[in-house]
Design a protein that fits this description.
The chain is about 60% helix and about 10% strand. The protein is mainly alpha-helical and about 70 residues long. The chain has a domain at about 30-60. α1 packs antiparallel against α2 (about 40-60). The model has no long low-confidence stretch (mean pLDDT about 90).
Length: about 70
Amino acid sequence: MATPLENLQTAYEQVCANLVTITASPKPTYNIDGQDVKWTEYMKMLTEQLEALTAAINAQNPYEVHHQGFT
């Protein structure tokens, strides 16, 4: 059984694959038989999902970044 982190990573990969697919051959927004197909909204939704999944993955892997400067 997959861990929650593995499930998040799988979802992230699937959203990335969908983004690659729709950006490889972009289509305009159109209407067929009274049903709207809004590609820009679909891409926006995928991008928002990607951001949410990134935040959730990062929350599963807390880390600290240390910077040291020299003069």
